[in-house]
């Protein structure tokens, strides 16, 4: 009998020091890479997907998106007065990051319902202008569950390159995905409130963004 299966191989790509937002101090880190392989008799033989990377803090053991390594905490004024961030971020990059943020908010309670799936598919098609299918959504969810990067940590890692409008749009996406079933759990309410502070939005900007999201249809 031929035994065929799959497994994930994880290895350290590099190590060094970074500023950990959780520890609020400089810590050692490891940049880890995980890639799925097809196995034959439990031996990995053929890679079947792209490698996904994540950063592990040597202090608190929290996991982060690799973008956390590019944040310059010595110069928090990366956001210019006009609201634009330093560096260039393409629309496709932002849409991918915003969608992943929404997925992580939904997965915060460890479960994704059919209503939440439909909401996320709708966000890709109508809000971001980038249609996604269930297979791609499933892959993104699988990556999120395997890497175990929490929503707060992911948004902290990537949002320093978002401008003000992008931060509002990402918040709206997270809100719409989280409320797909009609109500928010206590943990989701706290998570979205944390996102307001994490994104540096004022109370007025936060409530305006949520109000606008509630008016949207067909999402």
TrEMBL record:
Domain Co-chaperone DjlA N-terminal: 103-209
Origin: domain of life: Bacteria
Domain Zinc-ribbon span(s) in chain numbering: 19-64
InterPro entries: DjlA_N (IPR007791), TerB-like (IPR029024), Zinc_ribbon_15 (IPR031493)
Protein known as: TerB family tellurite resistance protein
SUPFAM superfamilies (UniProt xref): TerB-like
Pfam family, any one: Zn_ribbon_15
